[in-house]
Amino acid sequence: MFLKLLYIDPGTGSMLFSILIGIVGVLVFAVRTFWIKLKFIITGGRAKNADKNKLPIVIFSEGKRYWSVFRPVCDEFESRGKDVYYYTSTQDDPALTNGYEHVHAEFIGEGNKGISKMNLIRADVILSTTPSLDVFQWKRSKEGRYYVHLPHLANDLTTYRMFGLDFYDAVLLSGQYQADEIRRLENIRHIPAKELKLVGVPYLDVMRDRLTKNGKAPENDKPVVLIAPSWGTSSILNVYGDALIDALIDTGYEIVIRPHPQSFESEKDLMDRLMAKYPDGGKVTWNRDADNFDILNKADILISDFSGVLFDFSLVFDKPIIYAVSEFDRTPYDCAWDEEPLWTFEVLPKIGKELNKDNSKDIAKIVDDCLNGTSAKALAGARDEARKETWCNIGSGAKHTVDYLLNKYDELNKEKEEVKS
Fold it and tell me: Of 161, 354, 377, 421, which has the fewest Cβ atoms less than 10 A away?
């Protein structure tokens, strides 16, 4: 009986260990911060000496899967000879081995350990693509002055989880509709207005440049259909699942499934079941490449839901999409507060064909119509219009992003000097 009372199941043990690591991380950085302050008091130093310990601009990345978002920004800092500090939560982040001179990359620990360091960061400007700042574990540091969000997709920012951007100071945008959405939320919630800046989409620029340099993939012997859903209860694999996969297999086309990385963490049971039923290399190929460029270039058509990959595929590779209709549950997302229709769901009918439970059995006809039928030309023209709405500053997104960060740093330090004087 005594031994049973001492037993902790593996899941609980893992959670407790994660919490312990987080606590230890907080204590370590708290002691370090206290020591810096103590030295400041003992030496009678002035504020300007303390400021020497504060980093100018920091990029925080949750891990290597966001490297495509940050790489063009890091490259721009490097080409200008401007220092930036890149903190990542994965040990194999490509930034760590990229050989930069001015991008100072550092692995700060996985999970709670990395978050603990960011919670005590001393920096003037912090750039991240991670939403929910000051909502969950990641808190604004008392020594972190200005937080800037760089989206990792080119569609509605209100599809972040609730309060995803509320506590950022600024958000960098790619389309005016995103600014309109954020302003509506601010008015509804009666929160201070953030600084909004249209900069573009740096990672799409890189993808576009790669396509120009490498060229389009060779023509396939038979159509390659890529399923690349988002994750959550409204995603394709949850709503349509087996029925859609079976219907696509019946077409005789090459079927590739590329689940959202979060699905393997939050929907593990679903992923395990589907991958067991449809083994890789059989009638279906499963794609988990860290870089999605090759599979997007190879695929002839994409099927997705409300994932941002719809726009990567259609706007960069200029190929048709099929978007799956589901009862999109706004409840967990910021858009639950906004009665206006989502831009994504307004533009999808223009640039793609709808897939629903009624026509899913005719998926072969829908695919053929998108590729070579009467709809092909109209869809191509609509993609041009969508590109104008959601991809400003094409080719120079990284330049505009770094311009903003450097100008903001100078502005903050000018204000600091004026206060001292």
Answer: 421
